[in-house]
């Protein structure tokens, strides 16, 4: 168990530092630190999402028996991804910190920030990103122990499907980068927005009805009878996982409505979502 977690603890922060330093030092780029930090954080999130969804596809398509079949990637990638969620909490804080500084809340002329400002920024960060921080904490403190210990090697198919929920994350990250650089009205942003909406709907919202349908097919039950056949804690866990996805999907839909308004309407506001 220790080796994949150590590897994840090296890969994700290492990729972030490599990307940030490259964007700052390449003669053709010479990006400011704030831009390099924000784009690098989005890049690492996208890489993790591609790795997770690829691992999930391999696992889910390899398990013919959805309960008993096992694949080594299910446990290995779960352990590998744990450090990512810890790293990403800090990376999101760095992004928030630099946005705070760019807005002129830091020290004068780029100097040291006034006393207590770090705690003020931290409180503002937790207030703004509370749901995402809570999601990451639950993934590490609850979902990881459950997937490694409680499952006892059962249900790798379902875990693989859940990993594929990350398919939407690269589109979310690209959308945020385009908004950061005020490219909301470009064709790329509109196409990316449509792909983000579709992938989020299929891979995060409709994923849960699909998992219930898959179990019902395995057990010979109609879809509506599956919740009654499952233990209450399984339904509760699914509901808790689905609830934030529905909230984020609502925000994406609201942003999409603003994005595709006719010209002359107020400009779209950023979607407050991430993988």
From TrEMBL:
Provide the Gene Ontology terms for cellular component. endoplasmic reticulum; membrane
* Keyword Transmembrane helix among record annotations: yes
Entry keywords, A to Z: Membrane, Transmembrane, Transmembrane helix
Annotated compartments? Membrane
**Transmembrane regions listed in the UniProt entry:** 130-151, 157-179, 191-212, 232-253
Q: Name one GO molecular function term.
A: sphingosine N-acyltransferase activity
Which residue ranges does the record assign to the TLC domain? Answer: 34-261
Question: What is the protein's membrane topology class?
Answer: Multi-pass membrane protein
GO BP terms: ceramide biosynthetic process; lipid homeostasis
Q: What is this protein called?
A: Ceramide synthase
SMART domains for the chain: TLC
Q: Which Pfam families match?
A: TRAM_LAG1_CLN8 (PF03798)
Entry keyword annotation includes Disulfide bond: no
């Amino acid at each position: 168990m220790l080796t994949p977690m150590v590897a994840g603890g090296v890969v994700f922060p290492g990729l972030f530092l490599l990307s940030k330093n490259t964007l700052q030092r390449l003669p053709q780029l010479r990006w400011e630190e704030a831009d390099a930090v924000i784009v690098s954080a989005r890049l690492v999130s996208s890489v993790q999402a591609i790795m997770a969804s690829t691992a999930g596809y391999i696992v889910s398509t390899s398990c013919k028996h959805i309960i008993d079949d096992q694949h080594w990637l299910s446990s290995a990638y779960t352990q590998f991804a744990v450090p990512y969620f810890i790293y990403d909490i800090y990376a999101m804080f760095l992004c928030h910190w630099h946005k705070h500084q760019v807005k002129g809340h830091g020290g004068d002329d780029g100097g040291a920030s006034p006393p207590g400002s770090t705690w003020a920024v931290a409180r503002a960060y937790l207030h703004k990103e509370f749901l995402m921080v809570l999601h990451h904490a639950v993934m590490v403190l609850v979902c990881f122990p459950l997937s490694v210990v409680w499952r006892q090697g059962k249900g790798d198919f379902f875990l693989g499907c859940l990993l594929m929920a990350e398919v939407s994350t690269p589109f979310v990250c690209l959308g945020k980068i385009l908004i950061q650089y005020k490219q909301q009205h470009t064709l790329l942003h509109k196409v990316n927005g449509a792909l983000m909406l579709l992938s989020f709907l299929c891979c995060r919202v409709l994923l849960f009805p699909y998992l219930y349908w898959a179990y019902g097919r395995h057990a010979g039950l109609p879809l509506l009878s599956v919740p009654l056949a499952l233990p209450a804690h399984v339904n509760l866990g699914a509901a808790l996982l689905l609830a934030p996805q529905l909230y984020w999907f609502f925000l994406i839909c609201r942003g999409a409505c603003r994005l595709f308004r006719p010209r002359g309407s107020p400009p779209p506001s950023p979607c407050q979502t991430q993988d």
